[in-house]
Amino acid sequence: TANVGDKVKEGQLLVQIDPRQLQAQLAEATAAVRSVEDQAAQAKVGIDTAKANLDLAKTTYDRIQALYKTQAASTNQLDDARNKYTLAQSAYQNAEQRYSLLTGSSLAQARARVDLINVQLSNSMVTSPLTGVVTNRNVNPGELVGMSAPVMTIANTQTLKLQGNVSQDVVPL
Description:
The protein has helices at about 20-70, 75-125, and strands at about 5-10, 15, 125, 130-135, 150-155. The radius of gyration is 35 Å and the shape is rod-shaped. The strands form two sheets. The chain has a three-stranded antiparallel sheet with strand order 1-4-5, with no helix packed on it. A two-stranded antiparallel sheet has the order 2-3. It is mainly alpha-helical.
């Protein structure tokens, strides 16, 4: 922590805001990303299973339809096969939509939260924007800091101006 009167260089660390809460939030957000990725992997398996069921239902329906045309299968059997095929189509579409949702907006939202917390963590390290001298310190270690509250004031001391009154008899000197 820099103190009043300390010379600082541009980019020098002035204050480190306690990052423990943000680190815990980052761990939680990272776990949420992994959870969405795991759910997406499960949804992918669900797509494969639904596709296999759809293929089986289609094959069964086609067979029953062929048998029905030759009057070797009843109307009930044909209706049952058609219903199972329709249900399998719906299950397959639902599985694809779930996978799409998880790999799309849900995963993007979870990753954006991780990115946001990483930005907040990088903002927890306050560095000097310029080379100069600390002229004012508005916070002390252990105090709470607001988002827009100035932490320190740094003056650029490379060029200084002095304004004041000078007596006429000293001007020639």
